């Protein structure tokens, strides 16, 4: 398993690993019952310290996302969305605040939201072509 | 515990190079001692090795160790191959096979004289000799000095994997490269003292950057001073003004500068 870890980010590496695994679960690439790579394997794949991966797994176990199986590794249980939703909304809020500071009208954000969610005011589906804002 | 340092003090004439330094390196742990030039990192390692006599403090090492010095001086008139054979003849824990494997991986010509190696190649040759020692603790003073990014990541990978065989590592660095990111614990040393010691992830969560009007007092480390504002790196619970996240580079720079308010 490989994904990019942003070492220069202010986001701790173990948190990046946690979020990435949750996203893989959300997208269906990881399913309940699947085994995730062992701590050492993932540490080797990503080129990070073993204890960093161990910490990510430990917290995922505490959140009920992973379950340790004696002698076999870690198995995916279910996705606990709460924390992921919270942290994603947090980031969104920061971006919205930035938009406000730049002076972007809320209407433009609404248009953007509808575009991303593929919906129009009248409820019909957007074709996905980017329209003039 | 592989290495334990307690209350280490060492002065050169009147200058305190190491001022009451304490830390421990556990089995299978990678410990990074970071700090600007002249912080006392090398003196600390030399005291651990007994190459300098401490003024005070207790040091204990459990097991065997090898040492990569800051001055990477090998015998200039020897060829790389002869250097390996010489190491083999004087050290019982030295594995010549492993040294040759490493030298090949680092693309160091065996028949070349040490004197003709570039800075980076010389560092890699020395590293090959150190890593070929089968010991419990590797003490490395600036192991990535003079290396290009490719070789640096190779060396970092090797350091990162040492704990998987139960080995421990203590290394120093004055630059922030990927090496810092494989460490279990980083200690930031400034003017002879350890001012911060924790895992990298914990440090990132502990500190934030604050922008305050110039002159405003805040309990933290000055990061940047501008015409009408100051930027401080402060612990989260002491944050004030306009708060922003701080990455490790910023935290290190602010702490290393050591201007505390």
Describe this structure in words.
- The complex is a heterodimer of chains A (133) and B (261).
- By secondary structure, chain A is mainly alpha-helical.
- Chain A has a domain at 13-79: Winged helix-like DNA-binding domain superfamily/Winged helix DNA-binding domain (Arc Repressor Mutant, subunit A, Orthogonal Bundle), CATH 1.10.10.
- Chain A has 5 helices and 3 strands.
- Chain A has helices spanning 13-26, 39-46, 50-62, 81-102, 106-117; strands at residues 35-36, 66-69, 73-76.
- Chain A has a 3-stranded antiparallel sheet with strand order 1-3-2.
- Residues 128-133 of chain A have low confidence and may be disordered.
- By secondary structure, chain B is an alpha/beta fold.
- Chain B folds into 3 domains: 1-63 and 136-198, P-loop containing nucleotide triphosphate hydrolases (Rossmann fold); 70-133, no CATH class; 204-257, no CATH class.
- Helix content of chain B is 28%, strand content 31%.
- Chain B contains 7 helices and 13 strands.
- Chain B has helices at 41-49, 80-90, 96-105, 119-131, 149-161, 200-206, 248-257; strands at residues 3-12, 15-25, 30-34, 56-61, 65-68, 137-141, 168-173, 185-190, 193-198, 207-213, 221-225, 229-235, 242-245.
- In chain B, strand 1 (3-12) and strand 2 (15-25) form a beta hairpin.
- The two termini of chain B are 36 Å apart.
Question: What distinguishing features does this structure have?
Answer:
heterodimer, A: 133 residues, mainly alpha, Arc Repressor Mutant, subunit A, 52% helix, 8% strand, elongated, disordered C terminus, B: 261 residues, alpha/beta, Rossmann fold, 3 domains, 6-stranded mixed sheet, 4-stranded antiparallel sheet, 7 helices, 28% helix, 31% strand
Terminal-residue CA separation of chain B? 36 Å
Q: What fraction, in percent, of the residue positions of chain B are helical? A: 25-40%
| Helix-strand category of chain B | alpha/beta
The residue-averaged pLDDT of chain B reads 92
Put simply, the count of helices of chain A is 5
Question: H/E element string of chain A?
Answer: HEHHEEHH
């Amino acid at each position: 398993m490989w994904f990019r870890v942003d070492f220069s980010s202010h986001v701790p590496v173990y948190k990046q690993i946690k979020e990435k695994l949750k996203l893989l679960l959300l997208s269906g690439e990881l399913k309940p019952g699947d085994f995730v790579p062992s701590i050492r394997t993932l540490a080797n794949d990503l080129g990070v310290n073993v204890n960093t991966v161990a910490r990510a797994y430990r917290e995922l176990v505490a959140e009920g996302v992973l379950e340790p199986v004696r002698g076999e590794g870690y198995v995916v249980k279910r996705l606990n969305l709460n924390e992921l939703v919270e942290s994603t909304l947090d980031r969104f809020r920061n971006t919205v605040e930035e938009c406000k500071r730049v002076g972007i009208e809320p209407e433009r954000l609404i248009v953007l939201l509808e575009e991303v969610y593929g919906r129009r005011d009248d409820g019909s589906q957007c074709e996905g072509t980017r329209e003039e804002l | 515990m592989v290495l334990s340092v307690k209350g280490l003090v060492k002065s050169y004439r009147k200058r305190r190079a190491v001022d009451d330094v304490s830390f421990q390196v556990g089995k299978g742990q990678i410990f990074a001692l970071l700090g600007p030039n002249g912080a006392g990192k090398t003196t600390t390692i030399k005291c651990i090795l007994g190459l300098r006599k401490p003024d005070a403090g207790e040091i204990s090492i459990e097991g065997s160790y090898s040492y990569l010095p800051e001055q990477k001086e090998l015998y200039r008139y020897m060829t790389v191959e002869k250097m390996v054979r010489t190491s083999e003849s004087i050290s019982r824990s030295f594995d010549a096979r492993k040294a040759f494997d490493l030298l090949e991986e680092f693309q160091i010509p065996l028949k070349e004289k040490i004197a003709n190696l570039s800075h980076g190649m010389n560092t890699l040759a020395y590293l090959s000799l150190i890593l070929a020692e089968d010991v419990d603790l590797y003490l490395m003073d600036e192991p990535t000095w003079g290396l290009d990014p490719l070789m640096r990541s190779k060396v970092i990978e090797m350091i990162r994997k040492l704990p998987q065989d139960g080995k421990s590592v203590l290394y120093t660095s004055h630059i922030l490269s990927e090496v810092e990111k494989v460490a279990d614990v980083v200690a930031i040393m400034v003017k002879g003292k350890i001012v911060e010691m924790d895992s990298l992830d914990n440090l990132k969560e502990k500190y934030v950057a604050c922008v305050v009007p110039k002159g405003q007092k805040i309990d933290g480390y000055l990061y940047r001073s501008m015409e009408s504002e100051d930027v401080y790196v402060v612990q989260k619970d002491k944050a004030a003004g306009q708060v922003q996240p701080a990455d490790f580079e910023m935290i290190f720079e602010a702490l290393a500068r050591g201007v505390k308010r």
